[in-house]
Specification:
By secondary structure, this protein is of the alpha+beta class. The protein is built from 14 helices and 27 strands. Helix 2 crosses helix 6.
Length: 492
């Protein structure tokens, strides 16, 4: 176990909070509920960002940037969206401060600098973007618009936790406009699939794709698709969402286009996004009592080389071999670091890289040089093996791929073992309390039943899975007829 790190089995929440800080990913900021993402944590986010950005551009999307501030009148234009986010909004009322001579010269909002119209700090950007699209769209020739922005948003959360729920967080939000309903629906499905492919193939986290119930749907959407992941403590985490907005925002902002026949029609819309919450998903899916476990695809450093030596002569000999290995690995696209710091002992370095989740560690000492080998340690299963120097780079490249697959398979097996079908409410509650995970249960489709189950158990419907077969049954709570099972879980 990593020094000073609580065991997961003792207190999972405390383990998570400690790991985020000790692994140098992030820390709480001076602003309540906000975080400082430190360089190591940001390097992981940058790798996520780069891969997603590539996928977006491969499907024809372009990046743009829109203002942080949304005039209150624009925010109010789409009623359901405004109502859904109203309680989380930060609002700017003044544009200047002044010293207060009656209060020891402290700064106060200047009453003469009150804004004519208050500005909402964006909790999401549909309002400002659709007001902008009104000027961009006149004809069918202007469609589709396929735009994404990488940005920060503010949602004034009362209970916060690093990465999982913070008052300010980083994300990307796609906003697209289409001529037909069919095009918009296809876009919604496509982006949800892109998220699923990224999270599964890049982050090694298995997900369930499905749609949200009406009460869990994005405010202002006609339909919300999602990907749901399961963490090691049996709680679910919403890893990404893609929304079919219908014509709601187009009607709110009167965004119309002239068809080929010259008719005026409202456009159809989507929005979709993932955030730094994915960092929380990454930590809670793979990591252990020794610290982070990073999939090779996401690790800022995939391989670290640690020399074990006495004296400058031995270090020089080891460094010569290490430099060769570094060049060979980099030529194969592997990120590698040679840690020759003389301020730390090898054991301390080993502990540091275990805590930070570096997938592979190479140790080289004088005896290894004599034998033409290195000691190779895997972070995912904590095994060590002696590997010959010849062909080492190619071996490591292949091994990184195996580690990526192994992490996914381990998480998939856990997830599959924690999807439990139940047919009664007593069974529902027992599984929730003793096993956790996803509970596949019949639901009568009503908001009232969904709310009552949440009130009694704190479990919510995570999604109506796309892949579940139709199956006649009775709702576990009301006993009314049901044609399919949905997935319930306690969630972050």
């Amino acid at each position: 176990m990593a020094k000073g790190l609580t065991k997961r089995s003792e207190d999972y929440s405390k383990w998570y909070n400690e790991l985020v800080v000790k692994a140098d990913l992030a820390e709480n900021a001076a602003v309540r509920g906000c975080m400082v993402i430190k360089p190591y944590g940001y390097a992981i986010w940058e790798k996520m960002q780069a891969e997603l950005d590539k996928k977006f551009k491969e499907t024809g999307h372009q990046n743009a940037y829109f203002p942080l501030f949304v005039p209150k009148s624009l925010f109010e234009a789409e009623e359901k969206n405004a109502e859904g986010f109203a309680k989380e909004c930060a609002v700017v009322t003044h544009y200047r401060l002044k010293t207060d001579p009656e209060n020891e010269g402290k700064l106060i909002a200047d009453p003469d600098a009150k804004l004519e119209e208050e500005l909402v700090v964006r909790p999401t950007s549909e309002a400002i973007i659709w007001n902008t699209y009104k000027g961009w769209i006149q004809s069918y020739r202007d469609l589709p618009i396929l735009v994404n922005q990488w940005a920060n948003v503010v949602r004034w959360e009362m209970r916060t936790r690093l990465f999982l729920r913070t008052a300010e967080f980083l994300w990307q939000e796609g906003h697209t406009a289409h001529a037909t309903k069919e095009e918009a629906l296809a876009e919604t499905a496509q982006m949800n699939q892109i998220y699923a492919d990224f999270v599964q193939n890049f982050m090694a986290i298995p997900v369930v794709q499905g749609r949200k119930t009406e009460s869990e749907r994005f405010a202002g959407a006609d339909d919300t698709f999602c990907i749901e992941a399961l963490m090691q403590d049996g709680k679910a985490l919403q890893a990404g969402t893609s929304h079919f907005l219908g014509q709601n925002f187009a009607k709110a902002f009167d965004v119309k286009y002239a068809t080929k026949e010259g008719k005026q029609e409202h456009v159809w819309a989507t929005s979709w996004g993932v955030s730094t919450r994915l960092m929380g998903a990454l930590i809670m899916t793979h990591s252990d009592d020794q610290g982070l476990v990073l999939p090779p695809n996401l690790a800022p450093t995939q391989v670290v080389i640690v020399p074990i030596y006495k004296g400058e002569e031995q270090l020089a000999q080891i460094s010569e071999v290490a430099d060769e290995i570094v060049q060979e690995l980099r030529s194969l696209g592997v990120s590698v670091k040679f840690d020759d710091r003389d301020t730390m002992r090898p054991g301390a370095k080993f502990a540091e890289y275990e805590l930070k989740g570096v997938p592979l560690r190479i140790a080289i000492g004088p005896k290894d040089l004599e034998k033409g080998q290195v000691e190779l340690a895997r972070r995912d299963n904590l095994t060590k093996t002696a590997v010959v120097r010849e062909g080492l780079a190619e071996y490591i490249k292949e091994l990184l791929g195996q580690i990526q697959e192994s992490l996914f398979e381990k998480a998939l097996n856990y997830r599959n073992d924690h999807i439990t079908e139940v047919n009664s409410f007593d069974e529902f509650k027992e599984v929730l309390d003793t096993k956790g995970g996803f509970i596949a249960a019949h639901w009568d489709g009503t908001i009232d039943t969904e709310a009552k189950i949440k009130e009694l158990t704190k479990a919510t419907i995570r999604c109506i899975p796309f892949e579940f077969k139709e199956e006649e049954g009775e709702c576990v709570y009301s006993g009314k007829p049901s044609s399919t099972r949905v997935l319930f879980a306690k969630a972050y």
